[in-house]
Write a structure and sequence with these properties.
Elements (H helix, E strand, L loop, with lengths): L15 H17 L2 H14 L10 H8 L11 H20 L26 H9 L5 H16 L3 H5 L6 E4 L2 E7 L5 E5 L2 H13 L15 E2 L4 E2 L2 H14 L9 H12 L4 H8 L4 H8 L10 H7 L3
Helix pairs in contact: 1-2, 3-4, 6-8, 6-10, 10-11, 11-12
C-alpha cells in the first residue's frame, strides 16, 4: 500500500519549514500506512503555515485556528476542534524531536471534552437489506464481494480496497489474506469462505483467477474493462446502495462498526472483538460496540448466518 504523492514543495529553494512539514507528512504516512491520514494532516497543516513560520506560533494562534469557522460556514464540532489541536501538536512534537523548536504551543491550549457520538453500525437486518439491493451483474457481484469482505473481516477502508492478488493465498483448503493496518501493523488472517467465494466469482466474471493474476494487481476490477476500482468509486456506489435500501447515508467506515457489533451480538467477548479489530485497547473497542450483551463463542460463521449468506 503506497501513499499517494504528497503536495509538492514550493518552487525554488524550499524553506527549512517546508522541508520539515514535508518530512513530517512522509513519516506520518510511513507509520500509519494510511493515505487518508496523510491527506487529512496535509489539509490542516499546509494552509495553517502558509503565511507563518512554526517558531512564530503562539498559544492564541492555536486557539484561534482550533475554534475558527471553516469552509462550511458553521462553528466546528468538538471533534473537529480536538482534531485540529492534535494535528498541530503532533507536528510540533516532530519539530521538537528535530531540534527546530523548543516548545509546543498546543500544550497551553485545553482540548474540549469530546461528546460521545451516537452508536453507529448496521444491524443484521439492515445488512440483509443492503445486500438484497445489490444487482446480480458484473459490477454488482464485485460490489457484493467488497461488502462481504468489509463485514466479515472488519478491516478498514484502505486495507480492503488495497488488497491485491498476492495478498490472498490458500493453505490446506483455507483462504488467508495479508494486510497492513493502522500504524504500519501487518497481519494475516483467515478470509471467511463467503467473502473468498464472492471474490473468486467476481474475478471469474472478467476472466481472472487469483492463482494466475499478477500478485501486484488489485482484486477489485472495474467491470469488464478489468481496470482497478478506486476507493472513491466504490464509496459513490456504496452511497447509492444505501439510498436504494432506504438506509441512512453514511461512510464506508460504518461497515467496520457493523462488523464489530455483529460479532458482539453473535456472542463474542469484548476481548475477542478487540483482537479482531486490532485495537490497541479495550477502551477503543467499547466505542464501537456501545451496547455489550452476554458472552458466547461464535465467529464469522455466525455473522454470515445472521446476514443471510
Amino acid at each position: 500500500m503506497n501513499p499517494r504523492p504528497l503536495p509538492a514543495l514550493s518552487s525554488g529553494d524550499p524553506s527549512v519549514w517546508d522541508q520539515a512539514l514535508y518530512a513530517f507528512l512522509v513519516e506520518k504516512g510511513n507509520r500509519s500506512g494510511s493515505t487518508r491520514t496523510v491527506e487529512s494532516y496535509s489539509r490542516m497543516l499546509w494552509p495553517f503555515f502558509d503565511r507563518r513560520a512554526p517558531d512564530a506560533i503562539r498559544p492564541p494562534d492555536v486557539l484561534a485556528y482550533a475554534y475558527g469557522i471553516g469552509a462550511s460556514g458553521r462553528p466546528p464540532s468538538t471533534t473537529t476542534i480536538g482534531a485540529r489541536i492534535a494535528c498541530l501538536s503532533s507536528f510540533f512534537r516532530f519539530l521538537i524531536r528535530m531540534g527546530l523548536v523548543a516548545s509546543n504551543p498546543c500544550d497551553a491550549v485545553e482540548r474540549p471534552r469530546a461528546i460521545i457520538a451516537p452508536a453507529r453500525g448496521l444491524t443484521a437486518h439492515q445488512v440483509r437489506q443492503l445486500l438484497a439491493i445489490v444487482p446480480d451483474t458484473v459490477d454488482g457481484r464485485r460490489d457484493r464481494a467488497i461488502l462481504l469482505t468489509f463485514i466479515l473481516t472488519g478491516r478498514r477502508r484502505t486495507e480492503v480496497m488495497s488488497l491485491t492478488a498476492g495478498d490472498i493465498g490458500v493453505e490446506d483448503g483455507v483462504a488467508f489474506y495479508a494486510y497492513r493496518g493502522k500504524g504500519g501493523k501487518r497481519g494475516r488472517r483467515e478470509l471467511p469462505v463467503p467473502a473468498f467465494e464472492a471474490i473468486a466469482r467476481s474475478l471469474d466474471d472478467v476472466g481472472l483467477t487469483l492463482p494466475t493474476m499478477d500478485p501486484r494487481n488489485s482484486i477489485w476490477h472495474r467491470g469488464s474493462s478489468g481496470s482497478r476500482l478506486s476507493s472513491a468509486a466504490f464509496y459513490r456506489r456504496f452511497r447509492q446502495y444505501l439510498q436504494l435500501a432506504e438506509l441512512p447515508p453514511t461512510g464506508v467506515h460504518v461497515l467496520r462498526h457493523s462488523a464489530a457489533k455483529l460479532r458482539r451480538d453473535a456472542g463474542e467477548s469484548v476481548e475477542a472483538v478487540s483482537a479482531f479489530l486490532d485495537h490497541s485497547s479495550l477502551a477503543v473497542t467499547t466505542t464501537y460496540l456501545r451496547r455489550l450483551e452476554g458472552q458466547g463463542d461464535n465467529a464469522w460463521r455466525d455473522v454470515a448466518v445472521a446476514i443471510g449468506i
